[in-house]
Structure formats: structure tokens, C-alpha cells
Amino acid sequence: MRLGLFALTALLAFSSARADPGAPFAQGWFDAAVTNRVAWDFQGWACAGGAGQTRQSISIVLAFGGAGSGEPTQELDSATEMRPDAASACAGDPMVGWYGRRFAATPSLPVYAYAKSLTASPGALQPLGGSPITPRVWHDDIVWRNVATGDVYKQLMNRFEIVTGRFIYNEPSLAWKIVGRGDDDGDSTRDLLWRNDTTGDVFMQLTSAFRVLSGQLIYNEPSPAWQIAGSGDYNGDGKADILWHNSSTGQVFVHLMNGTVIIAGQHLYMEPSTDWEIMGSGDYNGDGRSDILRRNRVTGQVALKLVGGSNGALFVADKVVLTWPDLEWKIVGSGDYSGDGMADILWRNEHSGTVFLHLLWGGAVTAGQAIFAEPNPYWKIVNTSADYNGDNKRDVLWYHEQGGQVFMQLLDGLNQPEGQIVYVEPDLNWQIVPMR
Ligand SMILES: [Ca+2]
Ligand SMILES: [Ca+2]
Ligand SMILES: [Ca+2]
Ligand SMILES: [Ca+2]
């Protein structure tokens, strides 16, 4: 997984930030990943060089403002932990690593990192790193799983740029599959939902931008007929819930979640026949709750179940969207691709390769046209639920099954999408985990 390249990048960062003898702190680097408009993950390190400084005597402060004056206007966070993999960077001096997550109501302000001495005069702050962390709006990431080793790897994206990439987990048993990526604890970072194909166990991992925070077995459903069909927010509390569909009986069930805790389970509705497949889950009427997109695999009819109601008493309302009887056209994604807050429908013709976008308003089609064509069948659309450039329009990720290229397309409604290859992974054991 291009480990060599990332290791090299890290070494370069370390060597340019060696401890400066005599100075209380050497400059360290910091990473900042803005996971949406109001939440940031930070991590970095500093060397506690100089007389009397130890690892325990400094902390790191993240602060708004401070440009020019060198003083922050608002303390955000402080050091929390060592980063063992960065220890060599301090050339024998104590090193403090830090990791933080903060929420802020004013994300447009730049954020600076400072090192603070706990033993020197109170409030003494040293700028850490030379440039402000400029908050950026939502960037979704790319998560990979290696189907040989079980490794999970995450790439943080800023449009076509890979900001950083890290191994975040290893699950050697390949019976465990990542089946959902929703924001389960409401911290604006997508978490990982796993299911074990053999036992039916369901395991949720809460993750930050860079690492696994916690994980817990939350449920067991031994019947393989029950599949996790989505992880949207069906009760509108900002936390992702788990949608189940029984492919034998047509039953649709939702687990309302609070982090790793099931707060309620409810039968939602029954599909009229097994011809109806759940194609996606998004908010089609702009009420802040996920709805359910279905298609009849025989007639080609597309219809919604609009979800309403309160906790433990959800109900659904039917809405027919359209009928597209040509079954060569497959729904490959559903999300808001136009930025109006309502989910749309993305199609691809499996014969011609043409990609077609239906824009919806409140669940009704308002416009539709072909926006792209890729006739090469080895190019597969692997993710249609992420926003890689923070414009509140979901984008499309393609993967070449033979060459390992990853092509990112930034969608903008019916306009021609901008796209480029962002990565090549020659080891085809690495597979991109779709968001659902
Ligand atoms: Ca919810
Ligand atoms: Ca809705
Ligand atoms: Ca839309
Ligand atoms: Ca976008």
C-alpha cells in the first residue's frame, strides 16, 4: 500500500523539524483533517528540547487567531498522548505527541498550534509549526481493505490530493466485512460497521480521522437473509442508524443507534415482493431524515419510502419516482449530487457505460441527462456517497479492476464533472470500501 512512500514522507517531515538545541521547543508538524464544517481532528508532536523541559512539562494548545500577535485568542485543546512512531524525530530530547478533536462554531477562523510550557511562566506559548491550520469544509476519505491480510487503510482526501494515508486497523478474519460507513456517534466522522458473514455478528467501530477510537459488538443476526441495507439517520438525531432488509420475507427493519448502543429496534414496512430491492438511502425530501430508495428488478419501477415519525414510532409514506423499464440501466448511487439538500439518483448503463443523473426535488424528478460515459467495463463505480471537495455535492469514485487506478469525479449537478486519477494501487488485494 505504498507504505514506502508514506514512510519516506514522514522521515522528511521529521528531518526538517529536528530539535533546536537551546530552544524550549522545536517545531513539530501537525496534521489537521477537517471532517466537516464544525469538527477537526488534529495530531502532531513537538520536541521538548532545552533546560528543564520534559515530556510532562509541555502541552500543545490549539487556538483560534494569534496571527501576527503570536498569542491565541481561544484555547481549543491540549496534548493528550505520545506518538511512538515519531519518537526518533527529537534526536534524544523528550517528545510530546498530541491528538485532538474539537468542535467549533466559527470554522472560518484559522486555527494555530502552539506549544505551552507548564513549568515556565503561565501562559507562555511558542508557535508550533509555521502556518495556520486553515479549516476546510467536509472532505470524505477513502477507506481500503486488503482482502489478503485484512488490513484497513484510510486516505484523507482534499479534492484530488491525498492529504495523508494511514493503516487504521487489521482484522485478519475475512468473514468480517465492512458493511456500512455512517456517522454513528454524531461527531461528523464516518465510522465503520462490520458484519461477520459466518456468525452474523455486527460490530461497530467508532473512528476519528486517523484511528479507531473504540469498538463494540452490538448485535447478532444469524440469518444471512437479513442484510444491512444502509446506515442513514432515520430519526433525525444526527446519528447513523442501521437499516436491515430480509431478502426472503421482504421485511425492512431499523435499529436506531446512539454510538454503539441500540436505543430502539422497529419494523418499518414490508416490501410487497422480493422483486423490490433497496438501492440506497438518502434524504429525498430535505427533512433531515434518511429515506429509502427501492427499485423493482422486474418492472424497473423506482419508488421511495419517505421516513417520518419519532423515536420508536417511525412510519413510512410511499412515493413513486419513475419507471425505467430498460433493466440495462442500473442505479449505481443515490445522494445529493446537485447541492440542494435533496438526494438524486445516479444510473449507469451496464452495456454502454453511460452515466445518467436524475435530479430530484422532494422525491420527484425535475431533470435528468447523461453526464458521462465510460464504456470500458473494467472501470467500476465503487463509491457514490462521498463528498471529496466539500461543496456539499456527492462525488463519484471509480476503480479500474485490472490496473488499480482510482479516478475521482467531482459532480456538479448536470454539468460536466471534473475528474482525474488520484491514486494507483497495483496490489489488487486492496479494495475500496463503499460508503452506505
Ligand atoms: Ca439516528
Ligand atoms: Ca427525508
Ligand atoms: Ca439534489
Ligand atoms: Ca463534492
UniProtKB/TrEMBL annotation:
Cited Gene3D superfamilies: Integrin alpha, N-terminal
InterPro entries in the cross-refs: FG-GAP, Integrin_alpha_N
Record carries keyword Signal: yes
Signal peptide annotation: 1-19
Statement: the UniProt record of this protein carries the keyword Lipid biosynthesis: no
Pfam families the record matches: FG-GAP_3
Keywords: Signal
PANTHER family: MAM DOMAIN-CONTAINING PROTEIN (PTHR46580:SF2), SENSOR KINASE-RELATED (PTHR46580)
Protein name according to UniProt: FG-GAP repeat domain protein
